[in-house]
Amino acid sequence: MLALLDGTLADPDAPLVRVDDLGLLRGDGVFETILVVDGKPRELDPHLDRLARSAAMMDLPEPDRAAFERAVSLVLDNWTGGREVALKLVFTRGVEGGDGTPTGFALGMDIPAKVIGQRADGLAAVTLDRGIEPGLAERAPWLLLGAKSLSYAVNMAALREAERRGASEVVFTTSSGSVLEGPTSTLIMVRGRTLTTPPSTLGILPGTTQAALFRAATREGWAVRVEPIAVDDLYEADGVFLVSSVRKITRVHTLDGKSLPDSTELHEELVDLYESEY
């Protein structure tokens, strides 16, 4: 289901984006993916806030928030698929050599069966060096670390490398052995009643699902921390999880070919915490 920012629906199978749109030619744009359950979008305001923040980092025009909200409503009011929707908001710089008018739309899609299976069964991941070091985001803002841009070629290449190594996901690391994030997810490590995630100062994207889980955990008396995590710490943790809007809370059962401690019960507890927010 596809909705444009002018408040109209469009046929997702018909030609729409121009071939000279800079989002297509150069990945010059930003996006967000929002989970919708039973017609209710989760963390819509934080996602729209992050869309605007990413756009500002890339010197894009400020997204028309009201237009995106209208497009979201239009998709959801006309959705006829499953009870869960992956709702993508896309905003590009528009046509190369044009008048500067950006391209924007909202696109609703079913959740992939693979992702739903991983939610239940967990997954195997590998660690891959992302070439990022602490302080790089501040020293080199033009690298757009922490912006959710359309330039995902490196992320997709990392996932293909994981498949070549017999895994399905990636934990990006710094060259010095600190944990960053997944290509499309935030990492959370659990020890006892403490949840820890790496800081955004490392140049990673602050996660909306991670924030929702941390809110719920704090309310129920868990400790939450945002601080650096060493890769070696993951092997000794009670649980390692990759979280995102679409994958929700997914446990990592194997890392670099090594089985991690069984976190099945812990996973169920974290899922209940996350769902309690909604």
UniProtKB/TrEMBL annotation:
Keywords: Lyase
A Pfam family that the UniProt record links to this protein: Aminotran_4
Top-rank taxon: Bacteria
Enzyme class: lyase
GO molecular function, one term: 4-amino-4-deoxychorismate lyase activity
GO BP: carboxylic acid biosynthetic process
E.C. code: 4.1.3.38
GO cellular component, one term: cytosol
Signal peptide (residue range): none
Family, per entry: Belongs to the class-IV pyridoxal-phosphate-dependent aminotransferase family.
PANTHER family documented for this protein: AMINO-ACID AMINOTRANSFERASE, AMINODEOXYCHORISMATE LYASE
Name of this protein: 4-amino-4-deoxychorismate lyase
Organism encoding this protein: Saccharothrix tamanrassetensis
Phylogenetic lineage: Bacteria, Bacillati, Actinomycetota, Actinomycetes, Pseudonocardiales
